[in-house]
Design brief:
564 residues, alpha/beta, Nucleotidyltransferase, domain 5, DHBP synthase, 5-stranded mixed β-sheet, 19 helices, 38% helix
Length: 564
């Protein structure tokens, strides 16, 4: 049975699963070319069916997440979420009533689902699915945090685990704690939307004139540049308390924003970022510690947008109580389409394990499409007899290569199929990437890809479990920081993709570079311009090359070299 999962909110998308296999998954942003798209995922649904050669009549079960009051309201009035999207992404200036609308948004999103909102949500989603051509199907409305939890638990490979989900909010909750055991998910705790660590960090991001739901990683990065503040002197610590398996905030969402604003007034930006990051770390570690103590389970699965914070994830991984830690690679709401499909599959088919060796689950393109896009742009190209060797020589020689191969990655991280690659040991190249190509803030670091066999020699806290999805921070050994100058934080940490044993083109590239430099190591950042989605198609890749003026593009066995 093929089961389609969809998500029609922030970072909308679709996914198709069958048995214990994920057949296809993509987010609408990659196809619409609007970052973190919020529209109904018509394009993603069509891509799922086309790419897997699935007839629309084969789909009899469709899963969708979240039916709380706020989400239902935007399904009835899509213009509301479009307006919020444009203001949040700074595409439209705030109006006279923006503050009032924002206050209403935070208040309304705290309301949980009811029989009425579920009925209305079901009606609106079914209507859009029928517009897409579906006829004889059953729609399953799956709880927001259960979708997160099911994806993490079933993709982890653990026989049993404690599953923690944390995000802003959804279906009246900001988080949950589950136990996955004997092929069942047993909820141990629900964390109220009124007391949300995600909203706390969202407020911090917004106060620092960054985009909430998008720039929280910048707050984490800026925190590295602050003078540390002792926990007992950190005024943000007193705003949040952990009680049993729950989070308690001293203030409501709007009052929390105002209190944070007062505190921010007296501190430099980087110190405020540090205090917020440290508060997040302390409170989440306490919650995880209590969950492990209650359940007696040392294997931990994490999902929800908060767990895009790799510093928090590292500290959880290093907790003495934690035997092993797995972070679902598409941890934010963009992973809900797959999470709902996985949970519906568990209920309908009894499937309790999903293979997730990689996340190359999106579209792939043929050589004809690649050549057509290149010719359309008026660029010259050659066909390489050994693209791995040619690209390795360019990278080792100091070049920056746009690397486009195979099936597109699912999730926020470039993992070797839609990547920009360069030497990892050059600050000059890092600065060129930041200033000329990516146009990002100077304090946000790039990340490395490292061969699994080189990880113990480079990372001082590597635990032998290769994180191939770039979800964890690690500390770089002092004596190896010279080879990591372009991919290291000021505190000596990095967020690596640890490439495991196996036979794939990207691994062969790293192995070739290892033979030339001594380490299988490159700077790997997502193939996009800052503020745009990762490239999906050959046309997207060529457009980005033309826009940036970068010298090299490798697509399949095709090598494009521009004159600089």
């Amino acid at each position: 049975m093929k089961i389609l999962g969809i998500w029609d909110g922030h970072d909308s998308g679709a996914a198709l699963v069958e048995g214990d296999s994920i057949l296809f998954a993509v987010n609408e942003e990659r196809l619409s070319r609007r970052k973190l798209e919020i529209a109904f995922p018509y394009r993603s649904i069509e891509a799922c069916l086309r790419s897997t050669d699935t007839g629309i009549e084969e789909i009899s079960h469709i899963a969708c997440s979240t039916s709380d009051f706020a989400k239902t309201l935007t399904r009835v009035f899509p213009s509301l979420k479009e307006e919020y999207y444009l203001i949040r992404r700074r595409k439209r200036p705030p109006g006279r009533f923006t503050s009032l609308k924002k206050g209403m948004k935070y208040r309304l999103t705290e309301y949980p689902p009811s029989a009425l909102t579920k009925a209305i949500s079901r009606n609106r989603v079914e209507k859009r699915l029928k517009q897409a051509g579906f006829r004889d199907f059953r729609l399953h409305l799956i709880d927001h945090h259960l979708s997160h939890a099911s994806a993490a638990a079933l993709c982890s490979g653990f026989e049993e685990s404690v599953v923690v989900t944390l995000d802003g909010l959804g279906d009246g909750l900001s988080g949950s704690v589950y136990v996955f055991r004997d092929n069942e998910l047993d909820k141990k705790a629900s964390l109220s939307a009124r007391h949300s660590l995600g909203i706390f960090f969202e407020h911090v991001t917004n106060l620092m004139n960054m985009r909430e739901l998008e720039d929280e990683g910048k707050v984490m990065a800026l925190a590295n540049y602050a003078y540390p503040v002792a926990d007992e002197q950190n005024p943000l610590m007193d705003l949040i308390d952990v009680q049993d398996l729950s989070i308690r905030c001293r203030y409501s969402s709007l009052a929390m924003y105002n209190e944070l604003k007062k505190i921010f007034w007296t501190y430099p930006s980087e110190q405020f970022a540090y205090m917020a990051q440290r508060t997040l770390e302390v409170k989440i570690l306490e919650l995880v510690r209590r969950a492990i103590a209650l359940t007696g389970i040392g294997r931990v699965c994490l999902s929800g947008g908060i767990f895009s914070n790799v510093k928090v994830n590292r500290l959880i991984r290093l907790m003495p109580e934690v035997e092993q830690c797995f972070v679902f690679p598409h941890m934010g709401d963009g992973g809900l389409a797959l999470g709902t499909a996985i949970e519906a599959n568990r209920r309908l088919c009894g499937t309790t394990r999903m293979a997730l060796d990689d996340v190359f689950l999106g579209p792939a393109y043929g050589e004809d499409e690649m050549e057509g896009a290149i010719r359309e742009a008026g660029l010259h190209y050659t066909k390489s007899s050994d693209i791995v060797q040619d690209v390795a020589e360019i990278i080792v020689g100091g070049g920056i290569v746009f690397w486009f191969q195979g099936y597109m990655e699912l999730g926020p991280r470039a993992l070797g199929n839609r990547s920009i690659l360069a030497r990892s040991d050059s600050e000059r190249i890092k600065d060129a990437l930041n200033l000329r190509l990516k146009k990002r803030v100077w304090y946000q670091p790039f990340c490395p890809s490292i061969l699994e066999e080189d990880a113990p020699d480079i990372l001082e806290d590597y635990d032998g479990h290769p994180d191939s999805f770039m979800t964890m921070a690690y500390m770089v050994r002092e004596e190896k920081r010279n080879v990591m100058q372009g991919v290291i934080n000021v505190d000596g940490s990095c967020r690596p993709q640890i490439v495991p044993q196996g036979d794939c083109l990207y691994r062969r590239l790293l192995e070739t570079i290892r033979g030339m430099t001594g380490y299988g190591l490159v700077l790997n950042t997502s193939f996009n311009l800052h503020g745009e989605p990762m490239v999906c198609s050959p046309r997207d890749a060529v457009k980005t090359m033309v826009t940036t003026g970068n010298e090299y593009l490798a697509m399949g066995n095709i090598l494009v070299k521009r004159e600089i």
